[in-house]
Design brief:
heterodimer, A: alpha/beta, Rossmann fold, nine-stranded mixed sheet, 8 helices, 9 strands, 25% strand, disordered N terminus, B: alpha+beta, MutS, DNA mismatch repair protein, domain I, DNA polymerase, domain 1, Dna Ligase, domain 1, 4 domains, five-stranded mixed sheet, 14 helices, elongated
Chain lengths: 271, 506
C-alpha cells in the first residue's frame, strides 16, 4: 500500500478493488468494465454508470433533440480525464467554441470531416450519398485501428440502417481497441451491433425576460433521455436533462429540477 | 588511428538501373548508347556476363551469344538517386560520409565501437542497409580510404586490421588500382608490366623519387597508394535535408493508375531511405517531365509526417486527380522534406494515448480520405465572429499527472450548437420588426418564440480586401424557436438586410 501511495499521482483516485489487486496500469483505465461517465448523475444512472468501452453506443434523436449536447458532454468527460477523443462527422457542424465552453479540452480532440466536395464526381444524388455514408465510417475505422483513443464520436446524418459489413467492422475495431464508440444519428442505424441506444427528445425550449419590456433570453432546452436498447444493463430507464446556455445560471436549473432528479421508468409512448 | 569504411556497389550503372526498375533484375541487361547493331556495350549485367557478353563487344556480337538481350541507355537520374541512397545508408550509420564516384562511399567509423561489437558487425550492417535500398554492396574497412577502397574491390566484406595493411596490399595485383579507367592509364599499365611489376607489393618497394623522375607525379602517387599512405582525409558531405528520387521512363504515361504504380516504387525507396535515418516523410514536391517538354510541378502537403507509402500515394493521386498534367509524363521526380519523429513518454498511471507514429499515419490516411483541410484540431479563432474556426495540426499533449475531471452535476449541462457552414441564407417575414416566418432551403416554419436581437460587430479595422481580410461585420443575432421543433441561431445583416441561419441548438 505504501508503494502504491508513493507511485500514484496526487489527485488520482484508484478504486479499492484495484488497490487490492495490484498497482493500476495506465491501459487498465480504459478496460471494458470501466464505463465512460458523462458526469451528469441522472444520465449516468440510466446508463448504469456511463458508456460501455469497446462497444458501439447510439445517441438517437432528431436535430434539436440535444444529441450533440450529450455527445459533447461525453467528449468533455473523456478529455478532462486525459483521454484522446476523435469526432468524425460529415456535415462540418462541429462548433468548437461551444464544445470547449462545455469543459472539453479541444487539444485532445481529433476532428475529421468527410469532404463533401469529393463526392461531386458521382452522377446521381443516391450514389453521392452512399459514398459519404461509407466514408465517415471508414474514417472511424481508421481511427479505431490506430488505438489509444478513449472515445470516438461519429456524427452521422444518415437514418438508413448501416450495412452489416460496415457495422460489423466498426464493432470489431471498437472491441479490439476498447474504445467507446458513439454514433449520433436521427434513428438507430447500427442494429444489433450497438450495445446501447439512448433516445433523446426535446420537451421544451425555455425563453424568459427580466422585465416585460426587455428582450427575451433563450435559457436552454429540456431534454428527455431514454435507454431504448441496452444489451449490458436494464432497458427502459429515462431521465429529464437540462441543456442550458449558461449552466451556472441557477434559475433555469431550479425551474426544471422538479421534473428531473431520480431516473424514471420508460413509458410505452417513449419506447 | 582512424578507421574508414568503403561501400562499393560493383557495376554501378547496371545496379542503379535494376534498382529503379526491379523487373530488370533477372534479365541479360547491357548498357549501350544506341540500339544499333554496331553500338558498343558499356556495361554488362551478371546474367548477361554468364552468357559470355563482355564490355566492348558490339550489340550484334552480344545478340549472337544470347537472343534475350535487353539493351538500355545509361540513366543519369537512376544513378544519381542510387548514389544518394548509398550515401543515406552510410549516413544512417556514421555522420561523417564522403560520397565518391560510381557507387563508392566512404565513412568514418570513429566512435562506432560503442554501438557495434566489432568492425565485422559494422561491415555486415552496412551491407544490410545497402541491400534495403535495393542494391548489393561490398564493404571494406581499413586505416584509410584508399586501402578501404581496395578491400571493397575484393568483394564481400573485408576488414583489414590495424598495422596489417601492407600484408593485404602486397599480394594485390596492380590491376586492382584500375589504372585503365584513368587518363593515360593504359600506357602506364603497359609500362609497369614491361618493368615486371605485377603486384602492389612490388610497387611499394620502389623508391618514390626514382619512380617520380621516370613517371612524373603519377609515379609518386602510385607508390603512396601501393604503400597504403593516404594523401588526404575524408571530406564529409552535408547531411541531406531533402530526399530525392527520379525515374526516366522510356515512354510517356498518360493515365493515373500506371503513374501511381511507378510512383509507388519511387515512394517505397524514398520511405526506406528516410526511415533508415529515423525520420518521417513530410511535404513533398512532385515534378513531372511531360512529353511536350513542359514541367509540371506540384507540392503535396502531408498533414502528419508518415512513412506509410499508401497514404502518401493516395495524397499524390488526389492531387493529380484534382489537377491532371496537360500531357503524358515521361520523367518523375519526387522530393521529400523529412521531419523528425515526435518523442513520446508514456505514463503507467495515465490513460493510454495513440502511439505517435500510428497517430501520424492515421492522420495522413484521414487526410487522404477527407482532404488535409478537413482533419486536425478544430478550435475557435480569436475573433468575435461565431463561425470563425482555425484548423491546427493535431498534436495531443501528454496526459497530465493530476487528472482533472468534469465537475459532476445533477441534471444540467451546457447546450451546444450544431453549426451550419456556410450560413444558410433565409427569407424572414417580419411583423413590426419581429420575425414571424422563416423560409429557406430545407427550412420553412413559423416562429414560436424569439430571443434577441443582440448586436455583434467588429473587425472594423480590416479593409476587406479579400478572403484573408474579410470586411468588418455587423450582425443582429436572434434565437428563433420554430414550429419544426428546433431552436435556430439566426442573424440579420443590417447593412444588406439579409438573413442567415448559422446554427441549430442540438
Amino acid at each position: 500500500m505504501a508503494a502504491i501511495s508513493l507511485l500514484r499521482p496526487e489527485g488520482f483516485q484508484i478504486e479499492p478493488a484495484q488497490i487490492c489487486a495490484a498497482v493500476v496500469r495506465g491501459h487498465e483505465l480504459t478496460l471494458k468494465h470501466r464505463r465512460l461517465s458523462s458526469g451528469i448523475a441522472a444520465l449516468d444512472a440510466i446508463l448504469d454508470g456511463g458508456l460501455v468501452r469497446g462497444r458501439i453506443s447510439e445517441i438517437v434523436g432528431q436535430v434539436g433533440s440535444g444529441r450533440t449536447t450529450i455527445g459533447a458532454r461525453f467528449v468533455a468527460a473523456a478529455t478532462r480525464a486525459g483521454e484522446v477523443v476523435a469526432w468524425i462527422e460529415e456535415s462540418r457542424s462541429f462548433a468548437p467554441a461551444d464544445i470547449a465552453a462545455g469543459s472539453a479540452n479541444l487539444e485532445r480532440v481529433l476532428w475529421a470531416s468527410v469532404n463533401e466536395r469529393r463526392g461531386h464526381g458521382f452522377d446521381s444524388a443516391g450514389r453521392f450519398r452512399r459514398y459519404r455514408f461509407s466514408a465517415v465510417f471508414k474514417a472511424a475505422e481508421l481511427v479505431l485501428k490506430a488505438g489509444g483513443f478513449g472515445l470516438v464520436v461519429i456524427d452521422s446524418g444518415v437514418s438508413a440502417p448501416l450495412p452489416q459489413n460496415i457495422a460489423l467492422r466498426l464493432a470489431r475495431e471498437a472491441e479490439r481497441s476498447a474504445t467507446a464508440v458513439v454514433v449520433i444519428a436521427p434513428h438507430r442505424i447500427c442494429g444489433t451491433f450497438s450495445a446501447l441506444s439512448l433516445k433523446l427528445t426535446r420537451l421544451e425550449a425555455s425563453f424568459n425576460r427580466f422585465t416585460p419590456a426587455s428582450p427575451a433570453l433563450f435559457d436552454g432546452c429540456v431534454i428527455h433521455a431514454a435507454t431504448v436498447h441496452n444489451k449490458l444493463g436494464r432497458t427502459g430507464g429515462s431521465a429529464i436533462l437540462c441543456g442550458a446556455i449558461d449552466p451556472l445560471a441557477s434559475s433555469f436549473a431550479e425551474m426544471h429540477r422538479s421534473q428531473a432528479g431520480a431516473p424514471q421508468r420508460l413509458d410505452a409512448s417513449n419506447a | 588511428m582512424s578507421r574508414i569504411a568503403c561501400i562499393l556497389v560493383a557495376n554501378f550503372s547496371i545496379a542503379a538501373l535494376i534498382r529503379s526498375d526491379s523487373s530488370l533484375a533477372g534479365v541479360a541487361l547491357v548498357i549501350s548508347d544506341s540500339h544499333a547493331a554496331h553500338a558498343e556495350i558499356l556495361s554488362v549485367s551478371e546474367v548477361a556476363a554468364r552468357h559470355g557478353v563482355r564490355i566492348g563487344m558490339t550489340l550484334a556480337q552480344a545478340r549472337a551469344l544470347t537472343a534475350q538481350l535487353t539493351v538500355m541507355p545509361r540513366s543519369e537520374a537512376a544513378e544519381r538517386s542510387a548514389a544518394e541512397a548509398i550515401a543515406d545508408a552510410a549516413e544512417s550509420v556514421s555522420p561523417v560520409v564522403e560520397p565518391g564516384e560510381d557507387g563508392c562511399v566512404w565513412l568514418d567509423l570513429a566512435g562506432l565501437g560503442r554501438f557495434y561489437e566489432s568492425e565485422e558487425a559494422i561491415a555486415a550492417e552496412l551491407m544490410l542497409r545497402v541491400q534495403r535500398i535495393g542494391m548489393d554492396a561490398a564493404v571494406g574497412i581499413a586505416a584509410n580510404r584508399e586501402i578501404a577502397h581496395l578491400a571493397a574491390c575484393c568483394g564481400g566484406r573485408r576488414v583489414i586490421p590495424e598495422r596489417r595493411e601492407r600484408e593485404f596490399i602486397d599480394w594485390l595485383p596492380i590491376d586492382a588500382l584500375n589504372l585503365a579507367a584513368r587518363e593515360g592509364g593504359e600506357e602506364l599499365e603497359a609500362t609497369l608490366a614491361r618493368w615486371g611489376l605485377k603486384r602492389l607489393g612490388d610497387l611499394a618497394r620502389l623508391n618514390p623519387d626514382a619512380l617520380g623522375s621516370r613517371l612524373g607525379r603519377r609515379g609518386i602517387e602510385l607508390v603512396r597508394l601501393a604503400r597504403g599512405e593516404s594523401p588526404r582525409p575524408l571530406h564529409p558531405r552535408r547531411r541531406a535535408e531533402v530526399f530525392t528520387e527520379s525515374v526516366e521512363l522510356e515512354y510517356g504515361i498518360e493515365t493515373l493508375e500506371p503513374l501511381a504504380f511507378v510512383m509507388r516504387a519511387i515512394l517505397d525507396r524514398l520511405v526506406e531511405r528516410i526511415g533508415m535515418r529515423g525520420l518521417l516523410a513530410g511535404d513533398l514536391l512532385l515534378t513531372l517531365g511531360l512529353t511536350d517538354h513542359r514541367i509540371n510541378t506540384r507540392r503535396v502537403a502531408i498533414a502528419a509526417p508518415t512513412n506509410d507509402t499508401r497514404a502518401i500515394l493516395t495524397l499524390i493521386s488526389l492531387s493529380l486527380e484534382a489537377a491532371p498534367p496537360e500531357a503524358p509524363a515521361d520523367t518523375i521526380r519526387i522530393e521529400i522534406t523529412p521531419r523528425a519523429r515526435r518523442p513520446a513518454q508514456v505514463d503507467m498511471f495515465l490513460p493510454p494515448a495513440p502511439a505517435p507514429d500510428k497517430l501520424e499515419t492515421t492522420i495522413a490516411r484521414l487526410a487522404a480520405l477527407c482532404g488535409p483541410e478537413n482533419v486536425g484540431m478544430l478550435t475557435a479563432d480569436n475573433t468575435h465572429r461565431p463561425e470563425a474556426v482555425r484548423l491546427d495540426a493535431f498534436q495531443p499533449p501528454p496526459p497530465c499527472v493530476t487528472l482533472s475531471r468534469v465537475e459532476p452535476v445533477d441534471h444540467i449541462t451546457r447546450l451546444v450548437i450544431r453549426a451550419i457552414r456556410p450560413a444558410l441564407e433565409v427569407e424572414v417575414m417580419s411583423v413590426r420588426g419581429m420575425p414571424e416566418f422563416v423560409r429557406g432551403p430545407r427550412l420553412g416554419a413559423r416562429v414560436i418564440a424569439i430571443a434577441g436581437p443582440w448586436r455583434r460587430d467588429g473587425e472594423w479595422w480590416r479593409n476587406g480586401d479579400g478572403e484573408s481580410h474579410p470586411p468588418a461585420f455587423c450582425r443582429d443575432y436572434y434565437e428563433l424557436e420554430l414550429d419544426d421543433g428546433c431552436v435556430y441561431r439566426a442573424f440579420r445583416d443590417p447593412r444588406s438586410d439579409r438573413w442567415f441561419v448559422d446554427g441549430v441548438y442540438d
